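Trying the structure run again after the queue cleared.
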Amino acid sequence: MPIVVRIDVELARQKMSVGEFAERVGLTPANVAVLKNGRAKAVRFSTLEAMCRVLKCQPGDLLEFVEE
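Done. Tokens:
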């Protein structure tokens, strides 16, 4: 998949657990795992906005395009 999700990098930078992140964003830990593992087919802009707000980052910090 050419889009790589870098949520784990930002969580480590913020020293935040998946559980805390999920609660603050309004997702289940299982859905965060789906995002982190690159198994999500889509992400709502409202979810992306909430993730960026919680992690104090830009969308490009969470998503990266990588040529196959």
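The longest helix spans residues 45-55. Worth checking whether this holds up in the mutant runs.
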